[in-house]
């Protein structure tokens, strides 16, 4: 045997024969339904079955040693193999094992015979297989004299040792990514706007270091890495935590003409920071950036004890806040024992998780941390959830346990409402209401209690929405109550309050009249009715004025003879004239005085 590279068209000992083929284009066409491959197509590799890509008739595979793996190399990957090549009569013509040196080649790039590109693509790591390759997938009609006869079928025993995953990131061979170590942890991959921690080193062709950054925080898509940002951003999009890659970059993706030979970037993704909006209203007022993953899947449930360590507090510019005292706080989740920012965050954390919490001063000025005097700006807290109780899930509770739990949490909500912790109270009422969404199969005794509890929480929700000035949600919540209880006075009155602020004056008046029908002594409804009537009159007056102005505009023109017609917009009939402004103001002021109680009527149903 004259060389170790018969399956290849290149190698340390090139074939002496001039008939050796150097590319797929020099090989005879394949007769297996176009399953060949070239530099622009994955060919048969894309036509994958359960055992990998389907092989054409001219390439037969027999597995000698199976693998327990499940991944296969793809086109462009740099594969490392051992092989022994023989003719069909058993004559050995080449063996990498005899030279004790595995062979490495890029898969699917036409740098080996066609049968190899197709066959190795079906293999798993550690697998040993025998491939019988017809001449059209080998050296064709010419063969490779004197060792490979014309039209010869070949037999190769191949072991796939490993491969380095390679990707042409931009499709122009300007950046070739090679996975160096590890498959990464988890399933998350960074996208534009995500914050990550990475280590980067850029080297010239001679191995000299041009740039190195260790464990830096970087926002994907921010261009903070200058000329390397484009290549790094594209690479990060396919990486997972703890994964390392090498990027071989042409000058266009590196330092340009300053270093015309390009650069090789070694990139390690150390952490992907998960940033979430934790605020009750999803308005960005409480943002949590996870800096260390927690354990398992469980998170603290409403009503359980939790232990949270707060180790640092700064303002939005990173300066330490005066008065801050690091503390480990034990509290009952959802009871309002700590500030809203900590309440928002802890329910979405796992044991051992560390995070940086950025919140408005109004939601994070925690007395237990000495921050009660911070009145404005941002507060940035470094926190860790150390421990929390584990209690029975709501769906695992018996009917009686659910009713007892719901009653207790509703009472907590009422206390929060009285204390002005409206958002936190709203969360209580929502959770209790959701717990009793389906009670038809309850025992009669429990069913009545559950329905009453759900209705009380829905009524309290409407009261909270009024306090938060969310008029639409207040109206919708009342509508939901009135579907099942059409004469619920509180729901009708609170809907009327919402309608007033939505300037639905007629609907407000209708609801007020309905309340008075049900309760003739209801002073709040009568006062609210006067406010709605005043609002409707003002709206009618504005509409009439607008109509008059439109008519004036239409009246401009040569059609009416001068002095022969009344000016459009002037009123000759007293009944059509606008109300005297002073009378209107007096009537509205009187209605407002009588309606003060109505404006404060959003009282909770404890």
Description:
The protein is of the alpha+beta class and 606 residues long. The chain is built from 13 helices and 19 strands. 29% of the residues lie in helices and 23% in strands. The strands form 3 sheets. Strands 9, 10, 11, 12, 13, 14, 15, 16, 17, 18 and 19 form an 11-stranded antiparallel β-sheet that branches. Helix 5 (399-418) runs parallel beside helix 7 (444-467). The longest helix has 33 residues, at 523-555. The radius of gyration is 38 Å and the shape is elongated.
State the gist of this model.
The protein is α+β, with helices and mostly antiparallel strands.
What attributes characterize this protein structure?
eleven-stranded antiparallel beta sheet, elongated, 606 residues, disordered N terminus, alpha+beta, disordered C terminus, six-stranded antiparallel beta sheet, 29% helix
Instruction: State the total count of DSSP E strands.
Output: 19
Radius of gyration: 38 Å
Envelope shape: elongated
Separation, N- and C-terminal Cα atoms: 94 Å
The biggest beta sheet is recorded as: 11 strands, antiparallel
Q: How many H/I helical runs?
A: 13
Indicate the mean pLDDT: 84
Low-confidence stretches: 1-47, 565-595, 601-606
**In percent terms, what proportion of residues is strand?**
15-25%
Q: Helices and strands: which structural class?
A: alpha+beta
Helix content: 25-40%
